[in-house]
Amino acid sequence: MTDKPTLPGAMPNAYVPGQGHLPPEDQALVSRRQQALGPAYRLFYETPVHLVRGEGVWLYDKDGQAYLDTYNNVASVGHCHPRVVEAMTRQAGLFASHTRYLHEGILSYAERLLSYFPQELAHVMFTCTGSEANDLAFRIARAHTGGTGFIVTENAYHGVTHAIAGMSPSLGVGVPLGEHIRTIPAPDPLRMTGDLAQSFAAEVQKAIDDLTRHGIKPAALIVDTVFSSDGVYADPPGFLAAAVQAIHRAGGLFIADEVQPGFGRTGETMWGFQRHGITPDMVSLGKPMGNGYPIAGLVMRPEVIAAFGAKARYFNTFGGNAVAAATANAVLDVIEDEGLMQNAATVGALFRDGLADLATRHSALGPIRAAGLFLGAEIVRNGDPLAADATRTARIVNHLREGGVLISATGPRANVLKIRPPLVFSADNVAFFLDRLEAALQAG
């Protein structure tokens, strides 16, 4: 017996008001949240965590309790990294404005950022969030191709604007898919038969054929290049190439969503798409770009923006402002100077091996998938890789929270431990995590 897929959007690790064991002062905060913020916000964990500060890979609650952060990829180079904080505050004290004035900071950062990409990707436009970056990609793809059809995976998350929420099935049945959106299965080697590259490309082709049959011209295929919300599918390297060829044959574009896997997290390469030996038409960036400061962007081939740029002005009051540029530049400094991409590869391999070792002793720990410091570990019943156990996954997530480790779950069956710690994670941090995870597995 297997868990039925959860309704996407039924957040797998959400606090239910009235449950848990919150002290009175935190329960009062929950009540204030409900009163001030309304019903759409969610908190993590059966008993939410009241955090007050962070440093490196650790977060601290109001009582000084430390929690190992293995989930928050926003602070990609560590919480409150002093070099990033200094760059941010220094620029904020000098000048902060938008991109309609000449300023060297944004140009220096843009040129440096583009140097990490294939030379075909020669333009970058700045936004505040990954959602905005994907929304801009949506507009540009329609202008360039004349098409309106978009293809996404079945449990994808790409953002929260009106158009992009409609391309994010993981938000749930309460957020309807947009017009002309088609979904395809994630590239799950356990559930796709035959060669994974050809099987996934065949699903893309089916979606293209269905769009065409309904008189809809394909505009783009967009994927998160590690399929993080689908359950983390990174291997084998290269499997995405055939799917990209399929959308190109149909006259559509390929958009690589690098908001989560980008900036060295996969260890082997700076960007997830590079593991597949492909060059996208557009690449969206976000969360880790400013280590918590809101900066995001869209990198693209010049020919893709030509039609859009000839007809439309683009302006974003805060996207690419001088403080954002200085902050994001400091993030690149830290990634380079501290060797964080190599650290992601080295520590990520250690992490993966440690999880595999645990799996030999605990049948509940099923398939493990990883690329650098982006890992997914399935929780299953009786060692059956197809028997998802969402209920036990929730217990493990909350047991880890009580043991001082912050993590969450993902995937259409809500049974995949989603592990994406700051890139400064160490071997000692891995050992701490594995010790706490084993205790959670033993607890049942």
UniProtKB/TrEMBL annotation:
Q: Does the keyword Lipid biosynthesis apply?
A: no
InterPro entries assigned to the protein according to its UniProt record, in alphabetical order: Aminotrans_3, Aminotrans_3_PPA_site, PyrdxlP-dep_Trfase, PyrdxlP-dep_Trfase_major, PyrdxlP-dep_Trfase_small
This protein's cofactor list reads: pyridoxal 5'-phosphate
User: What UniProt keywords apply to this chain's record, in alphabetical order?
Assistant: Aminotransferase, Pyridoxal phosphate, Transferase
Which is an annotated Pfam family here? Aminotran_3
Give the molecular function GO annotations: pyridoxal phosphate binding; transaminase activity
Q: Return the similarity comment.
A: Belongs to the class-III pyridoxal-phosphate-dependent aminotransferase family.
In its UniProt entry, what is this protein called?
Aspartate aminotransferase family protein
Which organism is this entry from? Fuscibacter oryzae
